[in-house]
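Supplementary Note 2. Why include the ligand at all?

Several targets in our set were suspected to adopt different conformations when bound, so apo predictions alone were not considered sufficient. For every target with a known small-molecule partner we therefore ran a joint prediction. The input for adenosine-5'-diphosphate is given below.
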Amino acid sequence: MKVLVINSGSSSIKYQLINMADESVMVSGLVERIGEEMGSLTSKTFPGTDKEVKTVLEQPIPTHGVGLEMSIDLICKGDNAVCAMNEIDVVGHRVVAGGEKFNVPVVITEDMWPDLTETERLAPLHNPANLGGARDATKLFPGVPQVLVFDTAFHQTMPPHAYMYALPYEYYEKDHVRRYGAHGTSHKYVAKECARLTGKPAEEMNLITIHMGNGASMSAVKNGLCVDTSMGLTPLEGLVMGTRSGDIDPAIHNYLAVNRGMDIAAIDNVLNKESGLKGLCGMNDMRDIHAAIEEGNERARLALEVQTYRTRKYIGSYMAVLGRVDAIVFTAGIGENDDIVRLKSLEGLEPFGMKIDPEINAVRSKQARKISAADSTVDIWVIPTNEELAIAREAKALVS
Ligand code: ADP
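The joint prediction is reproduced in token form.
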């Protein structure tokens, strides 16, 4: 079975064609700057192998539909074609928000569209593009199942006391204001991987999973099910991120409006795009922040301290949520690569049985690895995430 995985963003499309026989990537590609004067398409066949062929096309790409058609032409036609179009058995789509209705992956049927369209207001920056990609693919692949995999689905097992905000109840009933979380596909993938690597059934494991990239979130996973997560109605809540503030006093909105004359749209923009690490020190890439700290930049040091302190507070709160923690899993750009952030996030937690082996932690690797010290009672793992493979697996399971 061959699954085409599509992640359609506001001006980009990421895709992978995965051969499920051995879960190898046949093609991976990125369409960028859709709708701008000049767009680009970068496609790699058999990436990372000695058969890799890279193709770059630079031309205007007016719509997502055109971008997708160009990508499929490269996959299925011409010198570097890897398979015929009718050999693509399923298309899997990443969708950021599924609301309460879409708590498992679904194969799209025509009658679902009103409910799917309803989810767009929960993630206005992402869902219209995600679902637009699914509409385009439905036209290009008539009769081929289109599977939607929702980033929020894994978190739908949270109990009401974890997902409700203490706001007037009708905001939940009428406007669906509650916590949904995000990055669920990644949290679920690394939780399952951790169980597999540990050799225990996922249903018997209590985990704290930490997805830390440009966006960052944490989940408390009890007996294989998510019972709490740090992102909320939107991906703004929780940890300190590249450009997002994470948790703040909600009264800051009013304070900024009164004291700086900012309107709600401007405040929202600052909290999402000008805050977090970038707000504190002007840099949102952790690599740049470490380099600046080396040069004595105190604001960069502060940003690192604030970010890792927030993570540590969440670890503490999830220990309280779970009672027993079997393992902590770090994943995504920072989680997989940044030994200093991992160390600082667990600093002082040794009395709770969480102890990193500093030497193993410092070794760079693309492989999953256990970084806890021999006498740590909680296992600490670094497990690379693979959201595309997770989507492909969900899509395969649903249509098989
Ligand atoms: P997203 O998918 O949320 O855009 P990623 O998971 O790709 O993000 O993570 C990107 C971030 O990971 C970068 O902004 C950078 O801060 C961090 N990162 C990537 N590589 C390294 C590294 N070697 N050391 C430290 N941080 C890294």
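The pocket of adenosine-5'-diphosphate is lined by residues 213-215, 242, 285-287, 332-334, 337-338 (CB under 6 Å). DSSP finds 15 helices and 14 strands in the chain. Comparable summaries for the other entries are listed in the accompanying table.
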